[in-house]
């Protein structure tokens, strides 16, 4: 049964958090984050809507492999149990709500100011989530610096008047209508993107000057080793000589700058030259040190769950900012005006 993730009680990224090994982060069709344990064994939740979270009321569950009492602490050598529900992944939802997504077209590139985003917190078991539980988001400029006011993402409830069915220990299938929260392994926490964004000069090329010249009033041509991705409007800094002066034209091996300096400055060959661009954006990241705050309980017996986050549950599994894998979501999200 090792391939089904119940050969060990150690829950780490190394053993896929006890989630069945057949479900991988890079699986296009069967994301592991829809797989969880209940009293019947490993269950895969197949959603009828693109919204794959505890806010959805359209889904059906498929028992992948029966393991009696899997979401309990187990009893004796013949019974395997996971114990407390454990967070196994946390990421920003793909705003395109596409599953599976494609690297080229399906991933989120960012959201705009004032828009609504969601964070998904994934457990390896079914849990009860009370409305109002929170996850804290940190906010930085485009250089991941100059941290500003944090944002709070808050768990909501599935639609009032709707009914969802879940298999509960010692009870069987239970219908919950207008539950004030979510019953899922994948609760969703909503947040509002900031109304304004931070500005920063983002370096994109470091090269060096190739010949000497004197910079003074007016346009000045500077010879450099590379002009890769440099365009009119880029900024140029030369160590000890110039700081963020505008580029007004670009040649094959030269850039022309406009300066307002009235003091001549001699630039010799071999001095570091850095090109940057002014970027108006705020980068959001999930605050791993805080975990979640609020009431989330294990469906097995209604006890608490592991509330802290380990470093390896911050998962970059595709979506915004990722070109190396496929899936839903990401670890950081860029807000633009």
SSE layout and pairings?
Layout: E1 35-38, E2 41-47, E3 59-66, E4 87-92, E5 111-112, E6 116-123, E7 127-130, E8 134-140, E9 148-155, E10 163-168, E11 172-177, E12 181-184, E13 188-192, E14 199-208, E15 213-215, E16 218-223, E17 235-238, E18 242-250, E19 254-259, E20 265-267, E21 272-286, E22 292-293, E23 296-298, E24 332-336
Parallel strand pairs: 5-24
Antiparallel strand pairs: 1-2, 2-3, 4-6, 6-13, 7-12, 7-23, 8-9, 8-21, 8-22, 9-13, 10-11, 14-21, 15-20, 16-19, 17-18, 17-21, 18-19, 21-24
Detailed description of the structure:
The protein is mostly beta strands and 337 residues long. The protein has 2 domains: 2-197 and 282-336, no CATH class; 210-270. It is 0% helix and 42% strand. Strands 4, 5, 6, 8, 9, 13, 14, 16, 17, 18, 19, 21, 22 and 24 form a 14-stranded mixed beta sheet that branches. The chain is elongated. Mean pLDDT is 80; it is low at 99-107 and 316-328.
Counting helices, strands and paired strands, the structural category is mainly beta
Shape: elongated
Quaternary structure classification: single chain
Main β-sheet, in a few words?
14 strands, mixed
Count of spatially separate domains: 2
Which properties best describe this structure?
single chain, 337 residues, mainly beta, 2 domains, 14-stranded mixed sheet, three-stranded antiparallel sheet, 24 strands, elongated
What's the quick description here?
This protein is mainly β and 337 residues long. It is built from no helices and 24 strands. Residues 99-107 and 316-328 have low confidence and may be disordered.
């Amino acid at each position: 049964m090792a391939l089904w993730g119940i050969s060990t009680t150690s829950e780490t990224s190394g053993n896929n958090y006890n989630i069945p090994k057949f479900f991988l982060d890079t699986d296009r069709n069967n994301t592991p984050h829809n797989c969880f344990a209940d009293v019947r064994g490993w269950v895969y939740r197949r959603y009828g809507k693109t919204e794959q979270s505890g806010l959805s009321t359209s889904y059906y569950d498929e028992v992948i492999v029966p393991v009696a009492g899997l979401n309990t602490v187990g009893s004796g050598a013949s019974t395997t149990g996971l114990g407390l529900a454990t967070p196994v992944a946390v990421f920003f939802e793909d705003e395109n709500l596409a599953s599976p997504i494609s690297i080229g077209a399906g991933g989120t590139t960012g959201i705009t100011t004032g828009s609504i985003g969601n964070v998904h917190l994934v457990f390896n078991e079914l849990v009860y989530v009370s409305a109002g539980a929170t996850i804290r988001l940190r906010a930085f400029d485009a250089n991941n610096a100059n941290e500003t006011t944090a944002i709070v993402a808050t768990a909501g409830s599935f639609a009032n008047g709707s009914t969802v069915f879940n298999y509960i220990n010692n009870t069987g299938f239970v219908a919950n209508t207008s539950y004030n929260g979510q019953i899922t392994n994948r609760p969703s926490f909503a947040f509002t993107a900031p109304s304004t964004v931070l500005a920063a000069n983002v370096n994109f090329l470091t090269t060096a000057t190739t010949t000497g010249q004197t910079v003074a009033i007016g346009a000045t041509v500077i010879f450099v080793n590379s002009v890769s991705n440099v365009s009119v409007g880029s900024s140029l800094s030369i160590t000890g000589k110039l700081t963020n002066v505008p580029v007004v034209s670009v040649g094959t091996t030269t850039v022309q700058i406009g300066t307002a300096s009235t003091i001549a400055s001699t630039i010799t060959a071999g001095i570091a030259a850095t090109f940057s661009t002014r970027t108006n954006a705020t980068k959001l990241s999930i605050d791993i040190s805080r975990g979640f705050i609020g009431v989330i309980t294990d469906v097995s017996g209604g006890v608490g769950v592991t509330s802290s986050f380990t470093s390896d549950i911050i998962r970059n599994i595709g979506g915004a900012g990722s070109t190396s894998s496929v899936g839903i979501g990401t670890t950081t999200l860029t807000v633009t005006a």
